[in-house]
Amino acid sequence: MRLITHNMLSCNIKGVTNGFPLRIEAGNVIEKEVDFNPDFIRHMFAKLEWKALVEGARSMGYAELPEDSPDAAVLESDESFLKKLHHALLELHLEEGALVCPKTGRKFPVNKGIPNMLLHEDEV
Amino acid sequence: MKLKQLEGLLGDLEQFSNPIVELEQYPTGPHIASRMLFTAENSYGDITDKIVADFGCGCGTLSVAAALLDAASVIGFDIDPQSLETATLNAEELEVEIDFVQCDITKLELKGQIVDTVVMNPPFGTRKKGADMEFLSAAMKVASHAVYSLHKTSTREHIKRAALRDFNAKSAEVLCELRYDLPKLYKFHKRKEVDIAVDLWRFEPKHN
After folding, report:
1. Mutate to test the interface with A, among B52, B99, B108, B116 (most CBs of A within 10 A)
2. Taking CB atoms and an 8 Å limit, are A118 and B75 in contact across chains?
3. How far apart are CA A14 and CA A33, in angstroms?
4. What start-end ranges are recorded for coiled-coil regions in this protein (chain B) (predicted)?
């Protein structure tokens, strides 16, 4: 699971109103390079939940993203920032670990890169 | 990538080893899958450089097709862990990156407007009544630009009405009618092979 996916996942237990973002417990993280597409990264930026991304990246061992969401000028001029964003979003893979609901503490296990978001009977 | 090439690559994918009839697990053949994704990209620009979600991805045929057509990011969702394992192998085999998530699509909560396009070959509702509508409803909540889906031609009017009236569709269009050849997969199948008429739909949600 990469952070681009994590940025949209939310806890879906019945009664939990704001189960986003899921906290990441990283067991095993691997890195795989993919081609850098600056236009796509610029376009993505506006749709991201920035804090969730920064915290998620930090949990996976990558602390290069700025705490505060930078403004548009940075996107245009600073390629090194775009590359960091690219790396965080698309090149870090959580292979083993868990996603933890911020409200209930319920852990959704991640095995072989796949988070299991299936709910138990008493959670639906 | 040319259509024939895409079709060829998809034809090599691993499919369900022990299909679960209750989930209506049927492989999406390379003929349909390649045409579906090719049309989505060539006629509408909905795949390349886009974030694509595959609902009920099974062994990942549509996900792999999206990745081969250079989607920026592909996420496959399915409830069955064994299919997801096969899907993972398929992605590795074709050297494409796909994130997979195990979940019940009807209970999924996705935040934000990240997903551009949803592609899917959902259950037709022959085992669990209404499953096709549940998938369509879920897809329309998630996609910001378009949903591509396959439904039985016999349900055409019903689907159109539901999409426009209940699922927030700005438009609901049948792009073409295809023959879905289903091989004899389950014990209760009497004929060796059967052909059903399916519609390839394109829906646009209202919010974006």
Report:
1. B99
2. no
3. 38
4. 84-111
Cis amide prior to A21 (ω within 30 degrees): yes
The one-letter amino acid at A44: M
Write a three-state SS string for A78-119.
Answer: CHHHHHHHHHHHHHEEEEEEEEECCCCCCEEEEECCEEECCC
Closest CA to B106 of B149, B129, B139: B139
Q: Could you give the ipTM of this predicted complex?
A: 0.96
- CA nearest B97 in A: which residue? A34
> Quick one: how many helices (H) and strands (E) in chain B?
6, 7
The string of pLDDT tens digits covering residues B107-120 is 998 988 899 999 99
Angle of helix B30-42 relative to helix B3-11, nearest 10 degrees, comes to 140
B-interface mutation test, from A99, A103, A114, A120, most B Cβ less than 10 A away: A114
What's the rounded Cα separation, in Å, for the pair B103 and B53? 13
Please tell me the pTM assigned to this model. Answer: 0.95
Question: What is the CB neighbour count within 10 angstroms for residue A26?
Answer: 17
* Residue in the block written with tokens 């964003």: A85
**Token pair for B55:** 């609902």
Q: What does the alpha-carbon distance between residue B58 and residue B26 come to, in Å, rounded to a whole number? A: 8
Q: From A44, which residue of chain B is nearest by alpha-carbon distance?
A: B114
Q: What are phi and psi of B71, to 5 degrees?
A: -60, 145
Q: Which residues of chain B are within 8 Å of residue A47 when distances are taken between CB atoms?
A: 112-114
